Amino acid sequence: MTELRRNPQLGTWVMVSAGRQHRPQMPKDGCPFCPGSGQVPEEYDVFLYANDFPHLMEHPPEPEYSAHDLYPTQPAYGHCDVVLYSPDHRGSITRLSPAHRLRLFDLWRNRVVEMKNKDYVKYCYIFENKGEIIGVTMPHPHGQIYSYPFIPLRLERELHIAEEYYRKTKNHLFDEMIQLELEERSRLIHESKYFVLATPFAGDYPYETHIFCKPPRLDLTELSSTEADDFMRLLQDTVKMYDALFGFELPFMMAFHQAPVDGGDYSYYRFHVEFYPMHRAADRLKFNAGSETGAWAFTNPSCPEEKAEELRAVMAKILNPGR
What we know:
Distance between the termini: 57 Å
Shape: globular
CATH class of the largest domain: Alpha Beta
Largest sheet: 9 strands, antiparallel
CATH architecture of the largest domain: 2-Layer Sandwich
Number of helices: 6
Structural class: alpha+beta
Order of helices and strands: EEEEEHEEHHEEEHEEEEHH
Helix content: 25-40%
CATH superfamily of the largest domain: HIT-like
Strand content: 15-25%
Mean pLDDT: 95
Number of domains: 2
């Protein structure tokens, strides 16, 4: 069974995909993402792989549930892609060459362009789940792209807040946030020519960081070649920073927040990337408990300004290894 079901309490669409219950853990006899598996090219640097257990499909089956007015269903139109960063099974985004990381950017950007031409796709969401504690079943370095036939609730809320702020003040919310971070500097970790890395003022996780785009860009497709190079360098350095924080590859979720691809006017919005690491210390995790999951009311057991100072020191060593 694969279908969309509408949650009448929240007005959101849920992807019901019963087949994913049977997706495998990492096979013991080889990795399907490695050259030689027969499932990927014998030679590649980056590669877009169609998810074997997709929530969303270009040609989905009709819903199995006979919809009631209170419980509507829809076919699960869309796409679920796996983005392979490298053929090296033990590789990492941190070890990509400048040319290689730009090829990864081009893959992301080209897929967003493709999704803009699909009338059934409303939002193109690029993300990475990294680490076994996140639930990753394949350790080969990869991320994913989900192309939804709806705008997910968190993104819809973020867009609404930015639009309301612009309507009331005639100022861009993200521009003002960036300016404040650059003025206060207490949460600023690093500023490049076109981007800013900072801990958010009210982040949900102790080591959460956001990469904000200073130019008024809505998504990856609007970045110039120099902006793209600057972005990928900072993205890579951010992951290096996390890996150096406790001396091991830090598990995290990485989320690209972009404007929807439904043709609407989102000029009040800004492209940015959010990182949610699961650790609050080297040997302790930040779990989502009843308040976070049941009420969406997060408690951050740390001070963002103190964590920014800690991360700033680590980033300084990444950027100036000889000092």
